[in-house]
Amino acid sequence: MQLTNDTFLRALAREETGHTPVWLMRQAGRYLPEYNSTRKKAGSFLALAKNPAYATEVTLQPLERFPLDAAILFSDILTVPDAMGLGLYFAEGEGPRFERPLRDEAAIRALQVPDPGGELRYVTDAVREIRKALAGRVPLIGFSGSPYTLACYMVEGGGSDDYRTLKSMLYGRPDLLHHILDVNARAVTAYLNAQIEAGAQAVMIFDTWGGNLTSAGYEEFSLAYSRKVIAGLTKAHEGRRVPSILFTKGGGQWLEAMAATGCDALGIDWSTNLQAARARVGSQVALQGNLDPAVLFAPPERVRSEARRVLDAFGTGPGHVFNLGHGISQFTPPENVAALVDEVHTYSIKLRTTGAR
Question: Are strands 95-98 and 71-72 parallel, antiparallel or unpaired?
Answer without folding.
Answer: unpaired
